[in-house]
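re: ur question from earlier - yeah i can do the single chain one, its not a big deal. heres the input i used so u can compare w yours
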Amino acid sequence: MKRLLNTLYISNSDCYLSLDGENIVVKLKESELGRVPLHNIDSVVTMGFTGASPRLMGYCAEKNIALTFLSASGRFLATICGETKGNVTLRKEQYRISDQKERSLAIAKNMMVGKIYNTKWVIERAVRDYSLRLDTEKLKMQSNFLSNSLQNVSKAENMNQLRGIEGEAASVYFSVFDDMILQQKESFQFDKRNRRPPLDKVNALLSFSYALLMSMCKSALETVGLDAYVGFMHTDRPGRASLALDLMEELRAVLADRFVLTMINKRMINAGGFYEKENGAIVMTEETIKGVMSAWQSKKQDQIVHPFLKEKIEWGMVPYVQALLLARYIRGDLDEYPPFLWK
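and the output i got, formated as tokens:
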């Protein structure tokens, strides 16, 4: 149970929520884990299937407190809210911004700062932790290039220039991704990013991890009332959750890429967990998928101190916090969107 920015998060999937007076009560079987006054809560997010009492749901609807249900894996299920929840106003402002090039560019720049900064520090962390096993000069050179890319982001005058900077930075980052694979090199090698289909085991893991992260970001945006399909950097396209793609950019390296490296380097998976299809696609076996999902759920429970809030949260909460911060910026409560900067 964690309270952030007037939102109460219940991450234990076995908890049941009920109402006592004007307090929300969180129970695990017969034990009461805690209670929180609802008078200063804007929304409640619960992950799991145990549920909530009809009385609590009715109270939340009456008081305009959004009660959102996610699956244990973080997939958005539903939101219960009253007649006048400010989501309409929030989304209308989101649509206005998406139609204004300068305002969209300002948000996209901050997101790109987050992405490039985080890729830089994935490399720096590898240099720090494994200096005797890596070509540190090579990695430092690429890290310095990313530092220059960060400076160029602020100079971008339009979205095409920003996309060019992002593409070049991504190419430099992935050029040393294989260097950071330190175990099972005979089976897990990375030449370049490929997808649809992934043509090697590392790309298969990356694509699967990105899909998991995408689901988290889409759920996070739906939870705070934003339209996941209207983005600022990724253009609108039918069926594409453009804003979720925007949001996940700054989290790819620190959540998905580091997760894949850990799975390989700690030998949590092996080459026998993959097979090749007729079209050359490399896919994971059902047993490997279960193992990856289990490790992903465990990763989400690890804790960090959020760089902007300065509060300890679970990794799995990061997309939801960033979605909240984005919503607050769009509402005008923040001067600019603060990207997630990991170090």
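The chain has a mean pLDDT of 89. not sure if urs matches, ping me
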